[in-house]
Automatic annotation (TrEMBL):
Superkingdom as given in the UniProt entry: Bacteria
Keyword field contains Signal: yes
Keywords (A to Z) from UniProt: Glutamine amidotransferase, Signal
Signal peptide bounds: 1-20
This protein's name: Type 1 glutamine amidotransferase
Species lineage: Bacteria, Pseudomonadati, Bacteroidota, Sphingobacteriia, Sphingobacteriales
Length: 238
């Protein structure tokens, strides 16, 4: 009887593991500018989770960045974080999470975050410098075979807030560039990336500059782009 019970428990545990959902954490703490779009971005990502079979937690509490807590998540999303959001202990926990194979998604102001933490800069892929006024621009989708861009047109006209960068990593697989001739205020020239991914330090990272406006999180084209990035960060699927 005990052996039968043990077998049943093992089978139950195996079934639970097979059908267990991946879980992601949205981190949206701001120590600098606070984007109002965070308020609509969080529920939009939660809705993506419900529709695509992954669970979503959300927090502004940096104390959630412990090794024990982070290991439950397949990916962590920095949703328009700004400034110095993690202390040294929390930074170490996050580095360990990525080195253990964790996934990272940076959205918009994630590049305006943690300027004094070089490891993070390499993870997210760039550091923010400035932006002109919000305006329409033409995006060049240079890789349409990736999960976050395969649905996009080769040229994508879009209204958003377009970042210039003071530093851009050299190991990025660029997905989208912006045509600086299509708007005013660009400062990175012909190589002005807007979305990319890369393997980094044992984990996976995806970043999209898009997503400043509230309207982004009601736009199915943008949301499919963001979803693809999240799915890549969760599983490595391209």
């Amino acid at each position: 009887m005990k052996k039968l019970l043990a077998i049943c428990l093992l089978i139950g545990a195996a079934i639970t593991q097979v059908f267990a959902k991946d879980k992601v954490l949205i981190f949206c703490k701001t120590a600098g500018f606070h984007h109002n779009s965070i308020a609509v971005g969080v529920p939009a990502i939660m809705k993506l989770g419900k529709e695509n079979n992954f669970d979503v937690d959300s927090t502004t509490n940096a104390e959630k960045f412990t090794a024990e807590n982070l290991k439950q998540y397949a990916a962590v999303i920095f949703l328009s974080t700004t400034g110095d959001v993690l202390n040294d202990t929390q930074q170490t926990a996050f580095e360990q999470y990525i080195k253990a194979g964790g996934g990272f998604v940076g959205v918009h102001a994630a590049t305006d975050t943690e300027y004094d933490w070089p490891w993070y800069g390499k993870l997210v892929g760039a550091y923010f410098k400035s932006h002109p006024k919000q305006q329409e621009a033409t995006l060049q989708v240079v890789d349409r075979n990736f999960i976050a861009t395969k649905h996009l047109p080769a040229l994508w006209k879009r209204w958003d807030e377009w970042y210039n960068y003071k530093w851009i990593g050299d190991d990025l697989h660029v997905l989208i560039k912006i045509d600086e001739k299509s708007y005013t205020g660009g400062e990175n020239g012909d190589n002005h990336p807007m979305a990319w991914y890369h393997s980094f330090d044992g984990g996976r990272a995806f970043y999209t500059e898009l997503g400043h406006t509230d309207e982004s999180y009601a736009d199915p084209v943008y949301l499919k782009h963001l979803l693809g990035g999240i799915q890549y960060a969760i599983s490595g699927k391209k």
